[in-house]
Amino acid sequence: MRCNPITWETFLGLDQDVQRDLEIVDGVPVPREERTREHQKVGARLAQALEQAAAHPTENYETDTQVDVLLWQAPPTARKPDVVLHHHIPASTHLAAEHAVVVAEVQSTSSRRRDRVHKMSDYADAGIPHYWLVTFDKIGALSIERYASPLGSHRYTQIGTTHRDMGPVAVTVTDPFPMEILWEHLEVAPRV
User: Which of 61, 51, 67 minimizes the C-alpha distance to 89?
Assistant: First the structure.
């Protein structure tokens, strides 16, 4: 069954409970995959760690989880990344690709292909400079693959992968700004 495309305004006008579980791709509402509690917790921990790492004296960054990021208007495409680090915008402004600095997807069995192929391609086409793919287990984040898109290339190149077994540091980067995130900040299991 093929749905007729809808406009961005129509998508925004959907009931919030319906819209929460949808993305819009080329004007067609697409259901989001189911997210387990661990999946959501890893996303929340990453958002918190990114926001703390992004505390910057001259830039004003913030993070959001599972919100629409408008990638382009025609035909309307908006994805809901698990985590997005973006430049601060007024509350009345809708989050768009040009505001995003890093988008991250927490991969689960049901989202692996969508996150690695479809969303990665969409985020690169929209010009979002950094894309992270995060895997997890019962302890928390397990690995982080980092991709970057050279300005104007609309294509990601893998710039690094870290795994929890490699040491205490999950992410240490200088671009988009210097930051370090520790694996312990991405744990979801209770500490014994």
Answer: 61
In tens, the pLDDT along 95-106 reads 999 999 999 999
Q: What is the pLDDT of residues 7-17, one digit of tens each?
A: 999 999 999 98
As beta bridge partners, residue 7 has none
* pLDDT (0 to 100) of residue 113: 87
Tokens in use for 65? 């989880």
- Supply φ then ψ for residue 165, to 5 degrees: -75, -10
pTM value > 0.90: yes
Residue 93 pairs with which residues in a beta bridge? none
Q: Are strands 169-173 and 179-182 parallel, antiparallel or unpaired?
A: antiparallel
4 neighbors 29 (Cβ within 8 angstroms): no
What is the 3-class SS of 52-114, one letter each residue?
A: HHCCCCCCCEEEECCCCEEEECCCCEEECCCEEEEECCCCCCCCEHHHEEEEEEECCCCCHHH
Distance (Å, rounded) from C-alpha 44 to C-alpha 17?
A: 20
CA–CA separation, 118 and 113 (whole Å): 7
Q: Which tokens go with 38?
A: 């661990």
Q: Are 109 and 54 in contact (CB under 8 A)?
A: no
